């Protein structure tokens, strides 16, 4: 007897580092996006949608390694053997868009965009390979006031989402100050230099790795808990010491006067012209923050804010949450950065050949939503479950469809049972859907011109108090009979009893 071949069945699983999002979280994110959009619109920004795919060469030095187009991004070759990549963020596609439509755009060009981005990086707790960002950018504005506006808008956005002052901090630095530091220790200011970027990215990890971790990254390198080794910048001990002294000067800056912080940084940059230019820009931003009422309890200057991407050229900033929450194991976890941005005057230059000043801010929506949930600041699902019309007679499907139509036309969320099971299974379905009301019209009801409305919320409450079947049969409180013509009126009465109205409020 021939051996029967085993049928291949793929394993049902979500790819590593990705996730599925259920209805309550989808709606919660939509509400978050709406609030962020309100703030961005109030500041005068307009929406833009760009493609999820870009040519890899358009991402340029934005990629972690230009020689390996699949490093850090998800990419593939098309029929013309050109590399395409899923967008790594929303800034690089904006740069391409502005370069492509430059002559027809108003200057400055102010846009916002929300959407998913993808990063081919090692996933971890709360760190996914696909996540949602919400960006706002001003392109064509050379003044430092544009950067200050981004910082103030970031604060307004966090507060619009329910965070209070003291629960977050917008931390600001300037790449030019960091360039001045590196120039003073003999590294030069070429941002494209590998050692230069390795030093900056090492500083950027100070809040996660601490002094020892950054010290290793500034030197020969560091091995993480999984055994993966990251090659370091290879600095000399004296250079490492001066970088760490600068970084650790920021440990107590949160409560310090911004002017005092700048005085300390002036010593760091010494005679570096670019470093002094960075200090002057931050001084101007400080004056704008103060004039608008954004004190150091909302915006601070911080030495270890760097931003690890190579395209930043001036002020850089991060929105950080300051509170701790407990994870599933009861351990205290700090969410840290939930938004970031900065000035990138050279990104569009790659396309145009001339500098086009630009600055922007990006909210990490997925991470911020998780933080707000932990803080109890995310509204519960406000969409009521649907009223379910049972389908007990195949010959009367048109009648059931008419009922659903009447309920929907009255603004009530409703659905007709479309499975093939009997009444018991249909009632289980309605209960699993969380339906507040089940509409029942069997042969007896149809002959009498009535429908039975089963209040499933009250029924659930009553069932917890009933001890035997006789008592259950005698209980009529959980269902009523109404004339067929008064279907909508009867359903509305039950919904109102539980504070539900027209599909817009939850149970």
From TrEMBL:
User: Where does this protein reside within or beyond the cell?
Assistant: Cytoplasm
**Residues noted as binding L-histidine in the record, renumbered to the chain:** 89-91, 119, 133, 137, 307, 311-312
Name the UniProt record assigns to this protein: Histidine--tRNA ligase
Q: Name one GO biological process term.
A: histidyl-tRNA aminoacylation
* Reaction(s) catalysed (UniProt annotation): tRNA(His) + L-histidine + ATP = L-histidyl-tRNA(His) + AMP + diphosphate + H(+)
Name the family: Belongs to the class-II aminoacyl-tRNA synthetase family.
The EC number(s) given in the record are: 6.1.1.21
Question: Cellular component terms, GO, for this chain's entry?
Answer: cytoplasm
What are the protein's GO molecular function terms? ATP binding; histidine-tRNA ligase activity
| UniProt entry tagged with the keyword Calcium | no
Gene expressing this chain: hisS
| Quaternary structure note | Homodimer.
The UniProt keyword set, sorted, is: Aminoacyl-tRNA synthetase, ATP-binding, Cytoplasm, Ligase, Nucleotide-binding, Protein biosynthesis
């Amino acid at each position: 007897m021939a051996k029967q071949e085993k049928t291949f069945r793929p394993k049902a699983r979500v790819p590593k580092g990705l996730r599925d999002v259920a209805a309550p979280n989808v709606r919660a994110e939509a509400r978050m996006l709406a609030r962020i959009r309100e703030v961005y619109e109030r500041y005068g920004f307009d929406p833009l949608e760009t493609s999820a795919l870009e040519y890899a060469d358009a991402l340029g030095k934005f990629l972690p390694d230009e020689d390996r187009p699949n490093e850090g991004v998800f990419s593939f070759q098309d029929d013309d053997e050109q590399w395409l990549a899923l967008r790594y963020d929303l800034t690089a596609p904006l740069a391409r868009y502005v370069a492509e439509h430059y002559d027809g755009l108003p200057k400055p060009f102010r846009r916002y965009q929300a959407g998913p981005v993808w990063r081919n990086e090692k996933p971890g707790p709360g760190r996914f390979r696909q996540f949602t960002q919400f960006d706002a950018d001003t392109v064509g504005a050379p003044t430092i006031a544009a950067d200050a506006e981004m910082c103030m808008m970031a604060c307004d956005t966090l507060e619009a989402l329910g965070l209070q002052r003291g629960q977050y901090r917008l931390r600001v630095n300037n790449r030019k100050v960091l360039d001045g530091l590196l120039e003073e220790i003999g590294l030069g200011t070429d941002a494209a230099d590998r050692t230069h970027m390795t030093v900056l990215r090492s500083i950027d990890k100070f809040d996660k790795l601490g002094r020892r971790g950054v010290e290793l990254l500034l030197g020969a390198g560091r091995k993480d808990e999984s055994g993966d080794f990251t090659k370091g910048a290879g600095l000399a001990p004296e250079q490492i010491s001066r970088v760490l002294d600068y970084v650790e000067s920021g440990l107590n800056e949160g409560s310090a006067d911004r002017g005092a912080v700048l005085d300390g940084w002036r010593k760091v940059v010494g005679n570096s012209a670019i470093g002094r230019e960075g200090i002057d820009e931050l001084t101007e931003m400080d004056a704008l923050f103060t004039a608008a009422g954004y004190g150091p309890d909302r915006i601070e200057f911080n030495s270890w804010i760097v931003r690890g991407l190579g395209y930043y050229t001036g002020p850089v900033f991060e929105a950080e949450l300051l509170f701790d929450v407990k994870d599933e194991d009861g351990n205290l976890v700090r969410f840290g950065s939930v938004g970031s941005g900065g000035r990138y005057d050279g990104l569009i230059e790659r396309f145009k050949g001339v500098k086009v000043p630009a600055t922007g801010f990006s909210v990490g929506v997925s991470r911020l939503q998780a933080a707000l949930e932990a803080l109890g600041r995310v509204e519960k699902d406000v969409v009521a479950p649907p009223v379910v019309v049972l389908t007990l007679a195949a010959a009367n499907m048109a009648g059931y469809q008419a009922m659903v139509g009447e309920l929907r036309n009255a603004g009530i969320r409703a659905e007709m049972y479309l499975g093939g099971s009997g009444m018991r299974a249909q009632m289980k379905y309605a209960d699993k859907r969380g339906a507040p009301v089940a509409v029942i019209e069997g042969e007896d009801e149809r002959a009498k011109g009535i429908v039975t409305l089963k209040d499933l919320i009250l029924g659930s409450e009553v069932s917890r108090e009933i001890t035997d079947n006789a008592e259950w049969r005698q209980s009529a409180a959980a269902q009523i009979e109404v004339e067929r013509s008064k279907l909508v009126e009867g359903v509305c009465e039950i919904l109102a009893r539980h504070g539900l109205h027209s599909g817009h409020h939850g149970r």
